[in-house]
Amino acid sequence: MPSTFFGLEISRRALQTQQLAVDITGHNIANASTVGYSRQIADIQAADPWPMTENGYRISLGTGAVLANIVRARDAFVDRQYRWETSQQQYWAGKQATLQNIEGLLNEPGENSISSDLSNFWNAWSDLAKNPDNMGARAVVRERALTLTDSFHFMAQQVNDLQKDQDAGVRVKIRQINDDARQIRELNMQIKNAEIRGDSPNDLRDKRDSLVDDLAKLVGVRVTETRDPAFNDRQVNNYAIIIGNDSASPPQVLVDNCLVHLLQEPEAAGPDGKPFAVVCWADGSQAGAALDLGEKTGSLQASIEMRDSYLPTFRGQYDSLAQGIARAVNVLHNTGQGLTVSSGLDFFTLPDGSSPTAAFPVTAATITLNSLIKEDSGRIATGLNTDDSGSSLTEVVVGDGRVAQALASLVSGWSALQEQIQEHEFDPLGANDLNPVPAASFSDYYGANVAQLGVDGQQANRMKEGQDALVTQISNQRESFSGVSLDEEMTNLVKFQKSYTAAARMVTMMDDMLDTIVNGMGITR
């Protein structure tokens, strides 16, 4: 038979358990707006029964309730989905931001754009062809050429600046990854020590998960958590984070329990033309090996792709355009002469005044108006040089604007250029191609590149919007499971309060029963 005070012990456990449940509910309410906080649940279980014999039968008498654990409301599968979709979202967000910057630089369509400068340049040649001896028209051609070269220089500089900004962003992201890894390592140590003591450090786990969520924005993340076989009597876990390509061999482990493998921060960008450093491991078993980022995950990969692939390709398109214009204009300009007796003169040169060659081609950063033409617009060739020997003529047919007209025709095609190349077997840049750019005209080539940029921008916008919707959906799903509902917590608070009141009433009842036994039995009245 149980002790006389057995009921008081059950009541004590009930009071203690319900008080803890109220405290847990209060903790949830206090952190209802805390970012990264996971709702905690009081795991109330029946206490171990007390076996006894009553009337010759073995029975188990309940001993009340205990708080077995404080459970953190978290779904590992939803967390994996959220981090995967977040990595892809941030990848497309990074590309979208850079593409928008490029579109802003182009300013297409607009008055201050390359297409407008090209149109003005060809129109100036057309006007000069109608009145080749007019010094005002020649000055306009010179100024339009200077404006065009300045636009090319500006665009080349801006692309270089964007590339360096992306490289600086890569270094910042590497530092952030390493900083997050160090913090996760410290939390792993604290959490494991608590688990060894039998504790359940839910708030520390929330902090660790928040860091992993931040890490997923930078690079693809996979978390592995397994039970430590060294502890069989309690739940102690091993926690590791793998980043980048999930299929990489060996796995790219950033954090393994209390060990952290840092990434090497790339050095500052070198001179133009030199490749930027790749992201490598700084220590651990893969020291010096390049990090495999996988495919379309994380803002780090977006920055690296834009820096190493997209921006160089974009700059190469402008280099090809500048080279093509210099080649075509020089070919035709060399066949004629202007008011000043000077045939065979390049219109565009390198900055040092030398003629472009296959070994030293013109680029968007180096295309320059010939200094002789800059000083004297009378040297602009408009008339045909009819001397087969190629020597300078002492006379020019006044009003002859056939060269200027041929230059103006470049706006629509290559017919005049091809005739001159074939007639003189002249290939100034060693391109072995009659067309200066792989298109029907300069406008078509430039327009195709602008259109491709627009397509890339639309793709980034569309993918970003799609990922935004997925991340929002999964975030809502995770919030519905892990987030704090004040209505639900208030309901729990009332429930635990009523249970506490009932337990207190049971103590009062047991007190009355004991008082009857102690003070009332055996007394004759």
Walk me through what this model shows.
The strands form 6 sheets. The chain has a 4-stranded antiparallel β-sheet with strand order 5-6-7-8. Strands 1-4 form a two-stranded antiparallel ribbon. The longest helix has 62 residues, at 135-196. Residues 388-396 and 428-432 have low confidence and may be disordered. It is of the alpha+beta class. Among the domains are: 6-73 and 485-520, no CATH class; 79-102 and 167-309, no CATH class. It has helices at residues 6-30, 76-106, 114-130, 135-196, 202-218, 298-333, 371-375, 402-408, 415-424, 442-482, 486-520; strands at residues 40-46, 50-54, 57-61, 65-72, 221-227, 237-243, 253-256, 259-260, 263-264, 280-281, 336-337, 348-349, 368-369, 383-384. The relative contact order is 0.14.
First CA to last CA: what distance? 30 Å
DSSP E strands, number: 14
Low-confidence stretches: 388-396, 428-432
String of helices and strands: HEEEEHHHHEEEEEEHEEEHEHHHH
Number of helices: 11
Strand content: 5-15%
**Shape, per Cα inertia axes:** rod-shaped
Helix fraction, binned, reads: 40-55%
Q: Write out the strand line-up for the largest beta sheet, numbering strands in chain order.
A: 5-6-7-8
Over the alpha carbons, how many angstroms does the gyration radius reach? 39 Å
Task: Characterize the biggest β-sheet.
Answer: 4 strands, antiparallel
Arithmetic mean of pLDDT: 85
Structural class: alpha+beta
SSE inventory with pairings:
Elements: H1 6-30, E1 40-46, E2 50-54, E3 57-61, E4 65-72, H2 76-106, H3 114-130, H4 135-196, H5 202-218, E5 221-227, E6 237-243, E7 253-256, E8 259-260, E9 263-264, E10 280-281, H6 298-333, E11 336-337, E12 348-349, E13 368-369, H7 371-375, E14 383-384, H8 402-408, H9 415-424, H10 442-482, H11 486-520
Antiparallel strand pairs: 1-4, 2-3, 5-6, 6-7, 7-8, 9-10, 11-14, 12-13
Helix pairs in contact: 1-11, 2-4, 2-5, 2-6, 2-10, 3-4, 3-8, 4-5, 4-6, 6-8, 6-10
